[in-house]
Amino acid sequence: MTNLLETDRLIIRSWIPERDAEQAFAIYSDPEVTYFLGNGSRVTSIESQRQRLVENIERSQRRNNGTGSWAIVEKEATTIVGTILLKQLPDKDGLPTQDYEVGWHLRRASWGKGYATEAARGILSYGFNVLNLPVIYAVVNPENHASIRVTQR
C-alpha cells in the first residue's frame, strides 16, 4: 500500500483492487454518487469494480506522470470514503493536453463532512508542488451544487 499524502483527517493512498473492490463498489454502485459522472460510471458487481480498479492502475502506470486516482481513507475509522483523482484532460481528439483536472467522488455517508475539500486541497498541493503543474481545473456539472461549493473553498 502506497500513501500519496496525508491531511489532518485523511490518507490519500493507492487503490488495492483485491482489498478495496467491495468498498469501491459501495461507492460506484450508488446512483446518487454516479448521477453526475455520466454513462458507464456505475458498476454492477464487485468483480467489475475490481477490474475497473486494475484498469485504472494500469493506465496510471502507463502514463507514468504522477497522475491517477487514489482512495480517500478516513484515518480514524480506516474506511474508504471516496476517490480523489488528478488526470490530464484530453483534447477534442482524445489526445492528452497540458491541462489537468482534479475530481472527487465520495460515498453518500461521507457527504457534507468536508472530506472532498480536504482531499482536493491535498491533491492540489501535490499537483502544484510535487508535479509542478501550471494549472489544474475542476470540471463540474453546473447542477452539482455540492461540488461547486468544494471548488469555491
UniProtKB/TrEMBL annotation:
Domain of life per record: Bacteria
Provenance organism: Desmonostoc muscorum LEGE 12446
Single GO molecular function: acyltransferase activity, transferring groups other than amino-acyl groups
Protein name (Swiss-Prot/TrEMBL): GNAT family N-acetyltransferase
Coiled-coil features, chain-numbered ranges: none
SUPFAM superfamilies per the UniProt record, alphabetical: Acyl-CoA N-acyltransferases (Nat)
InterPro entries in the record: Acyl_CoA_acyltransferase (IPR016181), GNAT_dom (IPR000182), N-acetyltransferase (IPR051531)
Residues covered by the N-acetyltransferase domain: 10-153
